[in-house]
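Consider the following input, taken from an annotated entry for DNA replication protein DnaC (Proteiniborus ethanoligenes).
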Amino acid sequence: MEKLEQIKEYAKELNLNHLRINADKIIEEADLKDYSYQDILIKILKNEIELKDKKAYERRLKYAGFPVIKNIEDFDLNFQRSITQKQINRLLEMEWIDRIYNLIFLGPPGVGKTHLAISLGYKAVELGYKVSFVTMDNLMHSLKTQEISRKSKGKMNRILSSSLVIIDELGYLPISREEANLFFQLISTLHEQASIIITSNKGLEDWTELLGDPALTTAVLDRITYRCELFNMTGKSYRLEHRKSLF
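Applying the prediction step yields:
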């Protein structure tokens, strides 16, 4: 019993959390199955790696800030035909993140823009990429308050350290000249540092009205579309077509 407690104490010192919690079970299983010393060591190390990977994934998922989890398998390609299975398969390879490409999903509400953005971000998290999701409205709030709010500062630090930044719902709410300038500064900082996904109900030709300055709009689009895949998504709202009722 004394040796078992010593093993747990050493495991705690070395941050071998799986061994610390399960030392007695590991020893019991090793005796029962007559493991060799090498087999025991391999099992201990494998369990530690799996636990560390699980915790790292959980941290990435938490910091990503997804409002809900969306899976790409649930996206209805028969309803939304503006993107193909071949294109989705290519995006799921995540080569575009490694090459720092951006994605823009344009279209009216309900055509699947946010579903695609979240599901691609979720898959990126699973594959080990650091992802940040934020709506345009919340992004503006964080940009404007980061100097006085620890929460906003933390959010911006996570965004700036991400491999993929998802900006959802650009164009749904009006923005001021100050906010447009802050948005430009962020895009300039992220340019060639991280991939960006933007969803918007406004066509690119309408972004000048949104941002309020032709020169600034040109500069923003120049950086976003330098390496970019653009998806114009059309059709009816999936939510309206599949509306659920209590009766």
